[in-house]
Amino acid sequence: MTVLKKVAIGVGGVIAFAHIGILGHLISHEEPKRIEPPVLHLPRGPYSSYKIEAGKDGYTIEYRADDPKVLESSRSMDLDKEKRGFFGGGRESRTEYRRDQFTREGTRNLGGAVDGEGKSNAKSAECIAADAGAKSQGAMAGSSIAAGVLVPAVSGIPYVGWLASGWALLLGQQVGETLGSEVGSVFNDC
Question: Which of 40, 45, 89, 108 is deepest in the core (most CB within 10 A)?
C-alpha cells in the first residue's frame, strides 16, 4: 500500500469515528430539564388572597391571610331647614359626611387596639373630646336637679343645713358627671 492510501484510510477512519461519536451523543442526549416552581400549599380562606409572579430570574409570592384588611362605609346627609330664633329667619343648607372603617366582625374601628367586645383600648382624640363634653353636660344637669330637689329638702336641717345643701349639690354634680360620661360613651361609640 502506498503512503497516500494509508493517509486516506487514516483520515477516513478518523472522520468515520467522529461521525459515529457525534451520532451517539445526539441520540443519547436528553433535553435539559425545565426548572419548575415548587408546589406550594397556601392556606385558603374566604378572606385570603395571593399573587405569584415568575420570570427568568426567579419568582415572587405575595400572600395576604386577611384580605380585605379594612372595610369602609361612607354616608352623607343633606340638611335643609329654616332657621328660627331671636335674630330671624333664613335657610340653612349643608351636607354632612361621615366615613367609618369597620373590622370584619362589624365593630367600628376607632384607631387603636380593640378588645373582644369591640371597645377601644386606646381612646382616640375624638372619644376624649366627646367624653369631656358629656361629663360637663352631665355635671351641669346633675347640679341643677340637685339644686331644685335635694338642696331645699336638706337646707332646713338645724345647724348643718347649709353644709348638707353644699354636699347635696356636689353629690348631684358627681352623679350627673358619671351618668353623662356613660351616656356619651354609648352615643359616641367609644
Answer: 108
Q: Report d(CA 96, CA 78) in Å as an integer.
A: 7
58 domain-assigned = no
Query: Cis link prior to 38 (omega < 30° from 0)?
Result: no
Q: State the total domains in the chain.
A: 1
Query: pLDDT class for 89, splitting at 50, 70, 90?
Result: low
Question: What is the band of 85 on the pLDDT scale with cuts at 50, 70, 90?
Answer: low
pLDDT digits (tens, 9 = 90+) for 146-171: 888 888 888 888 888 888 888 888 89
| Own/partner pairs, 47-54, CB within 8 angstroms, 24+ separation | 47/104
> Rounded to the nearest 5°, which phi and psi values hold at 42?
-80, 140
Element (H, E) at 96: strand 91-102
Which DSSP symbol is given to 108? B
Q: Tell me which amino acid residue 36 is.
A: E
CA angle 78, 84, 89 (to 5 degrees): 90
Cα–Cα dist 176/182, whole Å: 10
Residue 151 structural domain: 71-187
| Helix boundaries (H) for the chain | 3-28, 125-154, 161-187
Neighbours of 180 (CB within 10 A): 21
Is 113 contained in some domain?
Answer: yes
